[in-house]
TrEMBL record:
<keyword id="KW-0256">Endoplasmic reticulum</keyword>
<protein>
    <recommendedName>
        <fullName>dolichyl-phosphate beta-glucosyltransferase</fullName>
        <ecNumber>2.4.1.117</ecNumber>
    </recommendedName>
</protein>
<dbReference type="InterPro" id="IPR001173">
    <property type="entry name" value="Glyco_trans_2-like"/>
</dbReference>
<dbReference type="GO" id="GO:0005789">
    <property type="term" value="C:endoplasmic reticulum membrane"/>
</dbReference>
<feature type="transmembrane region" description="Helical">
    <location>
        <begin position="6"/>
        <end position="27"/>
    </location>
</feature>
<comment type="similarity">
    <text>Belongs to the glycosyltransferase 2 family.</text>
</comment>
<dbReference type="InterPro" id="IPR035518">
    <property type="entry name" value="DPG_synthase"/>
</dbReference>
<keyword id="KW-0808">Transferase</keyword>
<dbReference type="Pfam" id="PF00535">
    <property type="entry name" value="Glycos_transf_2"/>
</dbReference>
<keyword id="KW-0472">Membrane</keyword>
<keyword id="KW-0812">Transmembrane</keyword>
<keyword id="KW-0735">Signal-anchor</keyword>
<dbReference type="GO" id="GO:0004581">
    <property type="term" value="F:dolichyl-phosphate beta-glucosyltransferase activity"/>
</dbReference>
<dbReference type="GO" id="GO:0006487">
    <property type="term" value="P:protein N-linked glycosylation"/>
</dbReference>
<keyword id="KW-0328">Glycosyltransferase</keyword>
<dbReference type="InterPro" id="IPR029044">
    <property type="entry name" value="Nucleotide-diphossugar_trans"/>
</dbReference>
<feature type="domain" description="Glycosyltransferase 2-like">
    <location>
        <begin position="65"/>
        <end position="246"/>
    </location>
</feature>
């Protein structure tokens, strides 16, 4: 009897494992494809004739690249850019730091690219580059694309809504200086964890807060519990860290931040978390229920691919 049960169990296991592996293949996202037009950018100096984008594999030629993913952001982008440039063009920063802004229009249905170019023409002393993706990839795909074509020695990803206080870049910059020498791979992430009990978070809907705590529980299980806020869209990467992390990124959806942090952990890259100021901004593209379910699915797919060795990364 025991042998019969054991035989049935082994048979069931032999059948289920290939089925699970096949399901993993079907649920995994396809490779992110870059189309020829997406390897170019426009700026105030080249409004009609796109220029070729550089490569992250090249040596840095400026101090800072600011990567701004944008999807239908005509209403929020102007104020965000104004705040960003007010800081970067301040006397104390301008004298010591060269920079570029890379706006990645993630297949917008509005005039995000046209607006970004119009704003670029209003700031003659700033290098603002606009890249237009032919199809919507998702925030993670847009950030990855910008990072892979940035020139900065340090690379900052920041949301187009202006929810994070841009001046807090200096807090991340200082922490990166403290982490090690300039040529070491390091990551510093902005954190809103200290705001959990404040009005900025308490005013959110009950459902959104419940889902937030549930996500944090799952993140502890998958291996990034050491980071209190994985989803803050304000992260600074040294060039060496970006060169190792972003070519290995697979997820283009909302949960891509977790993949970046997991990759950093697997690569032995130092990661620090710094409190930043943040406020809710109207116009979020996040569908709380739908996107939370997608995040859960993508987390499971991510970990399964890593554990089975389908997605490998090495220093």
């Amino acid at each position: 009897m025991d042998q019969s049960v054991l035989g049935y169990s082994l048979t069931a296991l032999a059948i289920s494992l290939p089925c699970l592996y096949l399901a993993l293949i079907l649920l995994s996202p396809p490779p992110i494809i870059t189309r020829p037009s997406e390897k170019t950018y426009r700026s105030r100096k080249s409004l009609k004739d796109p220029l070729s984008l550089p490569s992250l594999a090249d040596a840095a030629s400026i101090d800072l690249s600011v990567i701004i993913p944008a999807y239908n952001e005509t209403s929020r982008l102007p104020s965000m850019l104004e705040t960003t440039l007010d800081h970067l063009d301040s006397t104390s920063i301008r004298q010591t730091r060269t920079y570029e802004l890379i706006i990645i229009d993630d297949g917008s249905k509005d005039d995000t690219s046209a607006l970004a170019l119009k704003l670029a023409q209003q700031h003659l002393n700033s290098d603002i580059r606009v890249v237009t993706l032919e199809k919507n990839l998702g925030k993670g795909g847009a950030v990855r694309h910008g990072m892979l074509h940035a020139r900065g020695n340090r690379l900052l990803m920041v949301d187009a809504d202006g929810a994070s206080r841009f001046e807090d870049l200096e807090l991340l910059w200082k922490k990166m200086d403290e982490l090690g020498r300039e040529n070491e791979p390091t990551v510093v992430v902005g954190s809103r964890a200290h705001l959990v009990k404040t009005e900025a978070v308490v005013k959110r809907s009950v459902l959104r807060n419940i889902l937030m705590y549930g996500l944090h529980t799952i993140l502890r299980i998958v291996g990034v519990g050491h980071i209190r806020d994985t989803q803050c869209g304000f992260k600074l990467f040294s060039r060496r860290a970006a060169q190792q992390i972003f070519p290995a990124q697979h997820l283009a959806t909302w949960i891509f931040d977790v993949e970046l942090l997991l990759l950093a952990k697997q690569l032995g890259i130092a990661v620090a978390e710094v409190p930043v100021q943040w406020h809710e901004v109207a116009g979020s593209k996040l569908n709380v229920v739908k996107d939370s379910l997608q995040m859960l699915r993508d987390l499971l797919v991510l970990r399964a691919n890593q554990l089975t060795g389908r997605w490998k990364v090495s220093p």
